[in-house]
Amino acid sequence: MKMVAWVVMSISVLLLLYLLVMKKAKAGWLVAFGAHLAIAAIGIYVVNYSGWITQVHIPLNPVTIGTVAILGLPGVGLLYALKWFLFS
């Protein structure tokens, strides 16, 4: 099963690189996306360790960082509400 996952991931990465090279995509979108991911991770870290919310800990993983990167600050609220409703 791991081998299948590696093959699918490898093919996906190769196809993505092919599309980027053939379309001559600019690197600006990649920089902006990386900045959004970094800001999202910092936001989750601040919420977790600032003491504002003491009952719930939002884990730092790709899914939560991606959610906050796409939704912004309401994404942190969404993750907090999901964690609170599902696990309390």
From TrEMBL:
A Pfam family reported for this protein in Swiss-Prot or TrEMBL: BofA
InterPro entries: BofA (IPR010001)
Transmembrane domains' residue ranges: 6-22, 29-51, 63-82
Keywords: Membrane, Transmembrane, Transmembrane helix
Membrane recorded as keyword: yes
Protein name: Pro-sigmaK processing inhibitor BofA family protein
Organism per entry: Paenibacillus terreus
